[in-house]
Design brief:
7-stranded mixed sheet, 396 residues, 11 helices, alpha/beta, 6-stranded parallel sheet
Amino acid sequence: MTNSALEKFNVTALTENQVEQLTKIENYIQKQLQQATNSVVVIEGAAGTGKSVILTKLFEKLQRGTKEPDSAYYGLKNKFTVNHPELLKVYQELSETVTSLKKSDYMRPTSLINQAHKNKQRYDVIVVDEGHLLLSKPEPYIRFKQDNQLSELIKLARVVIVVFDFNQVMQSKMFWNRTLLETCLAPYPHQTFELTMQYRMQAPASVQTWISALAAGTILSLPKDMGHYDLKIFERAADMHATIKQRNEAVGLSRMLATTGFVKRSATEHNVYLDDFNLPWDEYDVQTTPWAERPASINEVGSIYTIQGFDLNYAGVILGPPFMYDEENDQIFIDTDKVTHREIYKKTPHITDEKAMEEMKQSVMFHVLNILLTRGTRGLYLTAADDKLRNRLGQL
C-alpha cells in the first residue's frame, strides 16, 4: 500500500528483475566512464514500470560510491535533474532520509544547464528523470536559450542517464518522438534499456489492457475478472468524490484528478465543475510538500502538473469536456477547441505541417489521459463531463 508520495522512491529492496536491469545499466556506465567520449543511457518504460525506482537506487549507489576509494564511482561529480517541480520536491525530501544524498544534488534542468555554463562546470554523470518533459525548443521566459535540454545536458557530462516514455509527452514545447531523440543521440555512443514489468497497478492483465485501450480512445467491455482492483464508473462526480474521501480515510493517498477543459468562471477561480461537484483544479503550487500529500488536497482536483510520476492508492479521474463520444465508431475523440490550457499547443519547430499539428494535439490529450488513468495502485474511478461519453461508460 502506498501511504506517502515518498514511499515508492525509498524502497529498501529491488525485485530480481530490477536488480538485473540495474546491474546491466551499471556495467554500461562503468565501461563508458573509461572512454573519452560523452555517452548516453536511455531507460524506456511505460507508466508504472519502475523507472523512477531504478533511477533512485542508481543515484544512491553513485553518490555513495563517490566517498568510497574502492568504488568505480569514487571522486565523481554527479547531478540529478527532473523538469517537474512536484517530483523535484519528493527527491529533495528523499535526500533528507538517505545519508549519501544532499538536497543540492537535485536541480531543474534549466538551472543546472545555466549554472554549469556560468561556472564552467562539467560533471561525470547526470541522471535525468522524466526525460520526456525536457524542453525541445528555446524558452526565453525561463532563460533557456538553446535548442533542447537533452543535447545541452549531454554536453555537460561524461555519461547521461535519461528516462523516456513517449506516451507521457504532454506539451508542444516538450515535444519528443523517437526521430527527435535519435537525432540528439546520433553523435554519441548510447544504449537503450527497456523496462516492461508493471509495478504500480495491482490489477490483472485484463484490467491493464482495458485501461490502456481507454487511454487510446478505445472503449472495451469491462473485464469479468478484476482481481482485487477496484474499477468503477460513476454517473455523478460528487458521488465519486465521496467514495474517494472514504478510501482516503481508510488507506490514504486517494485523490480526485481531471484533465483540462473546464472554463474559468472568474479571474481568480479555476474549478472543475460537474453536476453538483465543484472543486479547485490545482495546476501547480509552490508549497514544499507535494500536492498529493497535503491533507487539504482531498478537496482539490489534481492535474498532470501535480500528479505525473506519483502513485496513488485510489484515483478518481474526470474526463473533461474535450473528451467526447463518437457514436458512429464507439470510441473517444478529442475536441481540441475545448482544451482550455492552450499552453500545451504552442508552436514547435519540430511540427510545421498543419495535419501533423492536429495529430499532435490529439495525441497529447490522450497522453494526458494515460497519465491520469495509471495513477491508482489499488483502484480507478471514472466519470466524464460529456453526457454521451458518461452514459456510454455507464453502460459498461
